[in-house]
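Data availability (excerpt). The following record was deposited with the supplementary files.
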Amino acid sequence: MDNSNYKISVTGLGYVGLPVLIAFSKINEVVGFDINNQRINCLSKGIDKNNEVDAEDLINSNITFTNNIEDVKLANFHIVAVPTPVTKNNDPDLSPLISASEKIASILKKGDIVVYESTVYPGVTEEICIPILEEKSSLKIGVDFKVGYSPERINPGDSDHTISNIVKVVSGSDDDCLEAVAATYGQIIKAGIFKASSIKTAEAAKVIENTQRDINIALVNELSLIFKKLDIDTSDVLEAANTKWNFLDFRPGLVGGHCIGVDPYYLTYKSRIHGYEPQVILSGRKINDHMPHYISEQIFNEIEKISNNECLVTILGVTFKEDCPDIRNSKVLDIIDNLKTAKIGIQISDPLVLPNEVKESTGIELTKLKDLKPSNILVFAVAHSEFLELEKNDIKKLIKEDGIIYDLKNLFNKEYFFEDNIRHWKL
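Predicted structure:
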């Protein structure tokens, strides 16, 4: 079949799936499926609570939004972009992927292509997904249908690196499938297509992208811990080192979210199954997972200097990254949970998230920025644009005399608050 005649379906309309759906809708009729009824209702009305796509792109499009898998039967090129989280023990949780595969299998037809975009460890597509598709559909891979894998590379909240200008890695269950997948994605990707040698190769390439970033951040986090002991400003050190042409410019901070803080565990899980205990990857994970506790300890040290019933802490930002409303696996939430063990006042503000949804999922009540009271401790936890636009006088109104700012994103240099008698702590 000519790839131009493929009708596209996308299962999973989150941060990954929805931009893919929108991109394909500009060239052909598409179907968007999600099990979240509320999500479908909002998208049908032109509302994307994730703020990844414009209302105009949702309303003026060739998209059928549905929570009925039977509607997906009309498509013959199925993209699966569901979350792949980890359990409390940091083991892969493939239940969303398994469920999605079962649903696709229920409507799978001869001639269909299924392409997985979810981040997984090498082997998941061929060892778990394809057997489900075969069993539930009674069809045969390579004879009746084909399967590809093309990892998502979208960076939520990043308007520069959108789906069309990021090189797309593709793979297929055979050469014909590879060419069909490459040609289909080639219609929406301007940056080019890279044809991986196998599905496992494409899976591995994706999972190491975030693993590499995780390790690099872990290194500078550990350096920050060391330099604190040595009374050296980490920012000064990195600024000096960054003058060398091949120095990698990573900064210390919290590592959360649904990718960087999760994907390495998928790789280490598979590694352990094959008898190798990862060293560097898990060490990096240990350091990054420790940072919320370290930061909490520093804040507790300050709290101890203040009468508990008089201490007020303000936290700016609860999402896992700047200018993104996603709170999944946000390490700021870990800091908040730690602080709640102390008998102190805590006020939290984040302009990007919906207060009702945050309260429902975390129990946290948010305060509007304009309603915040002056506090003893002010924590810049997330570098939202709205926070960066605050003038010095605005910041001074948020903190009491002799208060302290905990700058987790290295937003201010050490001299910025010197004349104002405001202490400044940063990683």
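Summary of structural features: The domain at 222-426 is CATH 3.40.50.720 (Rossmann fold).
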